[in-house]
Amino acid sequence: MKVYRITNKKQSWYGESVGILILDAAYPCIPGNVGNASSFSFPVRYKVVKGASIDRLLKKRDMTLLESFINAAVELQEEGVKAITGACGFMALFQREVSDVAEVPVLLSSLLQIPFIYQILNRKRKIGIITADSKSLTPDHFISIGVSDEIPLVIRGMEDQKEFREAVLEEKGSLDSDLIENEVLSVARELVTNNTDVGAILLECSDLPPYAHAIQVEFNLPVFDFTTMIQYVHTAVVRKEFQGFM
Question: CB-based burial of residue 86 (10 Å sphere; 0-12 exposed, 13-18 middle, 19+ buried)?
Fold first, then answer.
């Protein structure tokens, strides 16, 4: 007989392994997007970070948002999640502070995968990063997550791509996924063509994983993003018993 006991009196439901901090924004989150629960094969729980708009996080790098991030993370923890992630790579700014408060693993930015990717690649290879806005991605984001400047990165942004900019960055209220896929492939094509030594691509933005497959088909490179990171951590915090025979 298995006996189960309450470990957290503030928790009234169970089974959600990963809590996801979402920006205070509104635009369509299609399958594959971190903001779409169907992107995962396991239950997740969402929490909006109050006041954390795209403008305040990306453009203004507003550090006064820290309290809102901490409060949202603590709420997710109290609701029983086993790990907390973000839904925007620019949340890297708050990685250290939030993880120092939380009692569960915190992985706010897909950029946390950079050191891992660097270690598994041939040292002659670079990491190509496609970000929502290359003009807003600063050294502070990398410093906040412990990424050394010795790691060779090539960065390209989506900010000048019309459909992506209007649909995501400007929240026009609709999103043409086919157009954005073409825009993402165009940016990736420019990145790889001008940097033939790129050995892997990392998608910073949580809106880009829906196009990871198309990128890989065209360039035959490993493609990392929020979903690869979240799935990896899920398997660590929810281990399954091995089944089989000898």
Answer: buried
What angle (nearest 5°) sits at the alpha carbon of residue 62, between those of residues 163 and 137?
Answer: 50
Domains held by the chain: number = 2
Burial 182-208 (b: 16+ CB within 10 A, else e): ebbbebbeebbeeeeebbbbbbbbbbb
Read off the pLDDT of residues 109-134 as tens digits, 9 standing for 90 and up.
999 999 999 999 999 999 999 999 99
The number of helices, as runs of H, and strands, as runs of E, in the chain is: 9, 8
* b/e map 88-112, b = 16+ CB within 10 Å: bbbbbbbbebbbeebebebbbbbbb
In this prediction, residue 245 carries a pLDDT of: 87
Does residue 84 sit in the same domain as residue 55?
yes
Arithmetic mean of pLDDT, 184-204: 98
Q: For residue 81, give the nearest of 241, 229, 234 by alpha carbon.
A: 234
Q: Which domain holds residue 88?
A: 18-109+230-237
**CB distance 67 to 195 below 8 Å:** no
Element (H, E) at 19: strand 18-22
